[in-house]
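Look over this today:
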Amino acid sequence: MRRALIPLVMMLAGVTPGLAQQAPVAEPQTNTPAPARGGVISPVLTIDSERLFHDSAFGQRVTREIEVESEQLATENREIEAALEAEERDLTEKRSQMKPAQFRLLADAFDEKVQRTRAEQAAKNRALSEALDLKRERFLSAAAPVLEQLMRNSDAAVILERRRVFVSSSVIEVTDEAIALLDEAIGTGLTDAD
């Protein structure tokens, strides 16, 4: 299987098996469009979608926003935890001064409060995660026409996720070029409505 992949990979990289050790031969002139920005002409391109998002101006803005919101939520969680611990200590200290039935009512109310608070904080965490997912979807929607243009400029038929490709030539990896084009086309993704 691996031997069958090597000629395919070499062909995609523009190397003909058996000729790899020979001196380069002048390429015949074709009507193939010139690559944009020093890019590559290839029917197959690869891209690192995680790096595409995280290294783009849009992704960096979103990451900063999510980090700020996550830190605010973590601070809120620590404050709530400290308040609940203090309330639990207070309740424990009062236990010896109360009748068991009276203490049980207070303890049950406290447990209910803890469960409700945990659910509320978990919901806030899920909402933050969902907000990140929505922003990624918005990024991908905005990125689609840019990536399609990159494909046209490279005369490519497909862009594959780099981490899902077993082996390929680094020449067809276009993440940096895609990031530059995205930064030009959509920037941080903020609009007047944001």
User: Anything to note?
Assistant: The CA atoms of residues 146 and 187 lie 12 Å apart. Helices lie at 2-12, 49-55, 57-95, 100-154, 175-185. Residues 1-37 have pLDDT under 50 and may be disordered.
